[in-house]
Structure prediction request, 336 residues.
Amino acid sequence: MSFATYGDLASTFHTRHQTAKLKQDMELLGMELSSGRKANLATHVSGDFGPIAGIEHSLKLLAAQTQGISEAQTMVRGAQTVLGNIQDQTQTLTSGLISAISSQNTGLIQSTAVTAREIFSSTVSNLNTSLGGRSLFSGAATDGLALADAETILADLMSLVSAETTAAGVSSQIDDWFMSPSGGFELFGYLGADEELGPFRLREGEEVSHPVKANDTEIRNLMSALAKSAVLAEGALSGDAASQRDLAKISSNELLAASDNLTFVRARVGSIEARIETASVRNTAEKSALQLSYNQLTAADPYETATALQALYGQMESLYTVTARLSNLNFTDYMR
Prediction:
C-alpha cells in the first residue's frame, strides 16, 4: 500500500492556505453578524440580482415621493393654519363691529376701526407668510412676498376715498381698488404670480397643487371688507358719525359673507390635506412591505451566522493545535 505524503515546504504552504481561508470566512461571517446582511449577495441569490435591484429602485422612487409629500404637507398645512388665523381674527372683528353699530357709540366704532386696521395689517402679514424660504400665497413666485405692506395699501386707499362723503362712495372706491383689473391691487398690491405653484407629486400618476393664492377672489373680498373698517381709523368720513356707522355696517355684512367664503376655501385646502395624508400612509405601508421583502432577500440569520462562526472558531483552533504538534516533532522522539 502506498501513501501520498507532503514535503515540509508543501505542508507549510497548505497550512497557511487553510489558515488564510478560515480567517477570510470568519471575517465575512463577522461582517454578516454585525450588519445583519449577507456579505456575499451574489452567492446568496445565485447571481440573480433582478429582484433586489427592483426593490432598491422602488425604494428610491418612494424616497423621492416622500420628499414631495413632505413639501406638500408643509405648504398646505401652513396655508391652512394661516387661513384659520385670519378667519378667527375676522370673526372676532365682525362681532366687535356689530356690537359697536348696535350701540351707536361713535367712540366705540372708532376703537373698533383701530382694531380693524390692526387686523388688516395682520392679515397682510399672514398672507406674506413664508415657510422654508417659499411664500405660501404668491403662486409660482415663491421667492417673494405675496402682497405689498399694509401701510402702502391703506395709504393708496386713503388717497382714493379722501374726497368721498358717503359710505357708499367709499365702499365703491375700495371695491374697485381690490376687484378691478386696472385697480391698485392688480397694479402693485399683489406681488405674486398669476400662475399657480407647480404641482407636488405624491405617487405615480397622482399630483396635487397648492390651492390658494393671495389674489383669489375670496381673499380679495375679505381684504376689501376689512379695509372698509380700517380706513375709518385712517380718517375716512371724518366728522360724519352717521356715514362712519353706515360704512362699518357695510364692512360687517361683507365680513360675514367673506368669512363664509373663507370656510369654503379652507374646506378645499382640507381636501388637499386629506389626499396628501392618504398618499403618505400608502407610501409608508408600501415602504414597509418593500423593506420586509428586501430583508428577506439580503438579511443574514443571526443564529445560523453565529453557529457557522463558532464552527469556524473550532476549525481554527484544531488547525492551530495540529500545526503546533507537528512543529514539535523531531527524529529523536520518533525513534523512541
About this structure: The chain has a mean pLDDT of 82. The longest strand covers residues 200-203. The beta strands are 130-131, 134-135, 200-203, 206-208. Residues 65-291 form a domain with the f41 fragment of flagellin, N-terminal domain fold (CATH 1.20.1330.10).
